[in-house]
Amino acid sequence: MGHDRIGIIGVGNIGAPMAMRMLERGARITVYDRNPEATNPLRALGASVVQSSRELADVVDIVIASLPTREASLEVALGTEGAIHGSAIKVYIETSTVGSAVITEIDRAFRAAGKEFLDAPVSGGPPGARAGTLAVLASGSKTALAIVRDTLDLFAANVFYLGEQAGASQVAKLINNHVSAAGRLAVLEGLSMAVKAGIDVKTMNDVFNASSGRNFTTTHKVPAAILTGAYKYNGPLTIALKDQALLLEEARQRGIPLWIAPRILETFEEAAAAGYRHEDGMRIFEYMNEQTREPVVAPQSQRK
């Protein structure tokens, strides 16, 4: 299928850079967001803008949803003005991380309506969406995947098919996010300890990258978010809270014990209660530094 009838619902943390990437690749897209102001930058770049999910699904064949909560995903997909009621839509792609129960509900509704559905959460964050290097974890009908494969290639470097059972991708994405969160918190905890011991943050991170502590946080997130002082990479802590809680929910439903995951959620909740709920997740480093009465030694890389 060509790139002339694509719609995106939700142009926030991931949806906006994804839309920009698609526009740059020559796609003609239509967008909708519950916050009208969020669509203005995309309108300026040539995207068409509509006022509801249903209106979007009346004019495009493929609809991509990127929403922050389960409630939002259900509303824009199945609500009174939901995409399911659109007259033109052929395939609905849910790229949000919302858990398998919500995905099962959306999948059943679309199949009952005679429309294709693909569970396709993405990994790689806003930088990956902007660069077109996202990983897509797809599950659902093979027909749906075949129809939208060219569209996915506009913003993804890798597409992994996990089978015909929609919801499998949600579990895989939550596991991946959990492993990423564990590595991130371990790095931030280690860097905080280094700061308190008078060790330069950049030097400690260089040690990680030359040694066994190397991971995505040390190679990408620390240089971009901490060493620059920007503290912007992951998106708000609310997203990490949601995903970690969803992981535990999926595990409980399957009777699977988890050991590290509960403590990660506790740490996120503690940071949120301390005022970091709506801050970028990388600011947990600041939260950790605040948990000592000892003076914090400023890292050499941030001294004048």
Question: How would you describe what is shown here?
Answer:
With 304 residues, the chain is of the alpha/beta class. 44% of the residues are buried. The radius of gyration is 20 Å and the shape is globular. The chain has helices spanning 15-24, 40-44, 53-57, 70-78, 100-112, 125-131, 142-152, 168-196, 201-209, 216-226, 237-253, 260-276, 284-290, and strands at 6-9, 29-32, 48-49, 62-65, 91-94, 116-119, 122-123, 134-140, 156-161. 49% of the residues lie in helices and 12% in strands. Strands 1, 2, 3, 4, 5, 6, 7, 8 and 9 form a nine-stranded mixed β-sheet that branches. It has 13 helices and nine strands. It has two domains: 6-164, NAD(P)-binding Rossmann-like Domain (Rossmann fold); 170-302, N-(1-d-carboxylethyl)-l-norvaline Dehydrogenase, domain 2 (Orthogonal Bundle).
Layout: helices, strands, pairs:
Elements: E1 6-9, H1 15-24, E2 29-32, H2 40-44, E3 48-49, H3 53-57, E4 62-65, H4 70-78, E5 91-94, H5 100-112, E6 116-119, E7 122-123, H6 125-131, E8 134-140, H7 142-152, E9 156-161, H8 168-196, H9 201-209, H10 216-226, H11 237-253, H12 260-276, H13 284-290
Parallel strand pairs: 1-2, 1-4, 2-3, 4-5, 5-6, 8-9
Antiparallel strand pairs: 6-8, 7-8
The chain-level mean pLDDT equals: 94
Low-confidence stretches: none
Helix run count? 13
Beta-strand fraction estimate: 5-15%
> Got a strand count?
9
The CATH superfamily title of the largest domain:
NAD(P)-binding Rossmann-like Domain
Q: At CATH's second level, what is the architecture of the largest domain?
A: 3-Layer(aba) Sandwich
